[in-house]
Structure formats: C-alpha cells, structure tokens
Design a protein that fits this description.
Layout lengths: L4 E5 L14 H11 L3 E6 L4 H11 L4 E4 L4 E4 L2 E4 L4 H13 L4 E4 L4 E3 L5 H4 L14 E3 L10 E5 L6 H9 L5 E4 L5 E6 L4 H12 L6 E5 L5 H5 L3 E4 L5 H4 L4 E2 L7 H10 L2
Helix pairs in contact: 1-9
C-alpha cells in the first residue's frame, strides 16, 4: 500500500505565471499524482473566491487554504477565524494616520477605507479578484461586519513601511506578515497557513514527513516549518529560501512540476 502525501501550493509567484495561468505541465503532474494518493491544497493569502478561480482551472477536488489560513476547507466543511473588532478599529486608525487605505476581506467581498486604487480595479495582478463590482465595499470605521484578514499595500516600497509595521505590531490579537516587499498582511493572532495545515494533517493522519509545501513569500515560512519537505521557488528572496529544505526552479520554469516529477519519480 503506497503512503499518502499532502501537497500545499502558494499561488502568486509559485503556482501561476505572470498571466495568472497554471501551466499544462503542472496541471498534468498534479492530476497524475492525485491517482497515487497525493492530496493537493492551494494555500494562499488571497481571499477564498480568488483562490477558487485558480483551483477550478486545475481540478475542483483540490482543497483550499485562503486568507493566510483564516479560512480553509476540510471534509466538505469550511472553517473560519475572524479579526477581532478591536484589531480592525486599531488598523483603520493607524492606516488613517499614514493616509493609507486598509483592505479587509471575507470569503468574497473586499472592504476598503479610502478610494479603490486603479491596480485593485485591475485586481492587482489578481491578488484581489472579484468579477462583481458590488463585491467592493467602502467602509469608514469598524462596522458590524466580520473580516477574516486584511492587507495594506503601498504603490511602491516605502520608507513608511517600517513605521507603520512597528505600530501595527503592537495591536493586541493581531499578527502581521508579508507576501511582498510592498505589503503588510493583517491576520488574527496565532493564525497562519501552518495552523490550517496542522488541522488537515491531523484529519488525514498524514505526518509532516509526508507533507510538501511550495512557496515564495514571507507568509509561507510558517507553512514551511509545518512541512517536512519545504520547497522555495527559485524566484524567492534569500530570506525565504533559508527556511526551505529544497529550492526548485522559478514559477516561470515549472518549478512545482519539476520538483514533484523528480521526487515521486514520475
């Protein structure tokens, strides 16, 4: 009887190319390994709806961890963890001090505190993706709505990033991370991709030693630490590569497929 494996794949800079496309080689490799008891999950900072779009391009049977672990699917159920209202209030206050817009998410809505920048309307390389204009909602304060996670994005890397990061890091019940040099990911305390992965490992009784994860960002480090086989993409910064047990080719060179083909000898 062959041993079962879990594979978790980040999206941006990992699974897709610059055109938001998963290569045919990667899709074929995933489908081949699904027949060999390898279970695949997308694991991303994107909201659930956006992750579903990419998942559906591959196979609807793939599981999803979205919003950096705040929402994930398991055994036909969906598990959610929300930002506290106090944390949201403080995030909005601090972002206003720096004249920045804060963005918050549920499974398919985008909530924003100032004008929606042009790059969000173009989905910011699909980081925030909804085809429905009504899914983008402006807010002025901590409303009664529940938010899974949030993000602050700078147009370009900015000297204010360190200042606002320092203030945000002092908010109770909030963890911060980054998936790019120009953003700050806002996540409920002690929630990240690894907490969802741990629940999935326990459910399927698959140990870390048979868990493979692929990523390229700082928000993938906890995922790497929960995986016995952690694979940084060739395009990852050195600060991410040092946490991985392996480095593969870049996302533009079929890095996921190349590693899996070699590892599983297919």
């Amino acid at each position: 009887m062959q041993k079962k494996y879990l594979v978790f794949m980040d999206i941006d800079g990992t699974l897709i190319d610059e055109q938001q496309t998963v290569s045919n080689k990667t899709i074929d490799t995933i489908k081949s390994l699904q027949k060999k008891d390898v279970q695949f999950y997308i694991s991303t900072g994107r909201m659930f709806l956006s992750a579903s779009v990419i998942r559906n391009d591959i196979d609807r049977s793939l599981g999803i961890i979205a919003s950096n672990g705040c929402i994930y699917s398991l055994d036909k159920k969906t598990y959610l963890t929300y930002l506290s209202k106090e944390a949201v209030k403080d995030i909005i206050s601090i972002s206003n001090q720096f004249n920045l817009s804060a963005f918050f998410f549920d499974d398919h809505h985008v909530f924003y505190t100032k004008d929606l920048p042009h790059y969000f309307k173009n989905s910011d390389q699909n980081r925030i993706a909804s085809p429905n204009p009504n899914d983008y909602i402006r807010i002025t304060d901590a409303t009664n709505k529940k938010f899974l996670n949030g993000i602050i994005i700078f147009d370009t890397p900015n000297s204010r990033l360190k200042q606002i990061t320092a203030k945000l890091s002092r908010i109770k019940n909030l963890d911060i991370s980054s998936s790019n040099t120009n953003n700050i990911e806002l996540i409920p305390k002690n929630i990240n991709k690894s907490t969802a992965i741990k629940s999935i490992q326990q459910k399927f009784n698959i140990p870390s030693s048979r868990t493979i994860s692929f990523g390229d960002g700082l928000n993938d480090i906890e995922m790497f630490q929960q995986s016995g086989i952690s694979v940084a993409m060739g395009n990852s910064p050195e600060t991410v590569k040092k946490y991985a047990t392996h480095v593969t080719d870049s996302n533009l060179e079929d890095g996921i497929a190349n590693f899996l083909i070699q590892y599983f000898h297919i």
